[in-house]
Write a structure and sequence with these properties.
The protein has 209 residues and is an alpha+beta fold. The protein has five helices and nine strands; from the N terminus they run E-E-E-H-H-E-E-E-H-H-E-E-H-E. The strands form two sheets. The chain has a five-stranded antiparallel beta sheet with strand order 8-7-2-1-9. Strands 3-6-4-5 form a four-stranded antiparallel beta sheet. Helix 1 packs across helix 2. The two termini are 17 Å apart.
Length: 209
């Protein structure tokens, strides 16, 4: 097995945190938004049938491809039917993705969109009207989904192994994001306590570069 990225002695057990080399893409999960991307070298996001971004925007906007619209006009019209955010990719010694753009103009640029139709928003939240507050909440959800996919692209997916007397007694994988905020607390919660009233005890912390 690979070396752990972090290890600690906790309540008489050894917790080891590893990179998860076989992690499932978050796009296989149940996401609210659809991630539509175009790239010459990478297959990113969800599958779709649009050859170019304009074809996607024409359909989302509900206008004929025979009509003459600029990309800006198409985006404005599409936003009448959907909550739509641009998606940017940074490609340099690894991949990164966000909805706001990167400072490097040579290795980054818009790669697609993440969106959800207003009809699907109404179904998801059980409402008849999408208010401004709900629109903003939905945009936050879409940004969070892109942040999760960014962590996956960057290899920030982890799993834990719990050992007692050098024997593995528990393990769990597929934690996406910084291991300190999710994977490690889950591992600590999974450690059995001999005395339920005893406070947690952590010793011999080791983080590997």
């Amino acid at each position: 097995m690979q070396d752990p990225v972090y290890e600690e002695l906790y309540q008489g057990h050894v917790i080891k945190i590893y990179h998860d080399p076989d992690a499932e893409s978050p796009r296989a999960w149940s996401n609210l938004g659809r991630l539509i991307c175009w790239h010459r070298r990478y297959r990113l996001g969800d599958s779709h049938r649009f050859d170019i971004p304009a074809a996607f925007l024409y359909e989302l906007a509900g206008v004929s491809v025979q009509s003459d619209h600029s990309m800006e006009s198409l985006r404005d019209r599409a936003k009448r039917h959907a909550i739509l955010l641009p998606v940017f990719l940074y490609d340099h010694s690894g991949l990164a993705m966000n909805t706001t753009g990167f400072y490097c103009p040579w290795d980054s640029g818009q790669v697609g969109f993440v969106y959800v139709t207003l009809e699907d928003v109404r179904k998801e939240f059980g409402v008849k009207r999408v208010t401004q507050a709900l629109r903003e909440k939905t945009e936050d959800i879409l940004r969070s989904e892109i942040a999760t996919f960014d962590a996956y692209l960057g290899g920030r997916v982890y799993g834990y192994v719990i050992e007692q007397d050098s024997e593995e007694i528990d393990a769990c994988w597929g934690f996406v994001g910084d291991y300190e905020t999710l994977c490690l607390p889950e591992a600590q919660n999974a450690v059995p306590r001999s005395d339920p009233h005893a406070p947690p005890a952590t010793h011999a912390l080791t983080a590997y570069p």
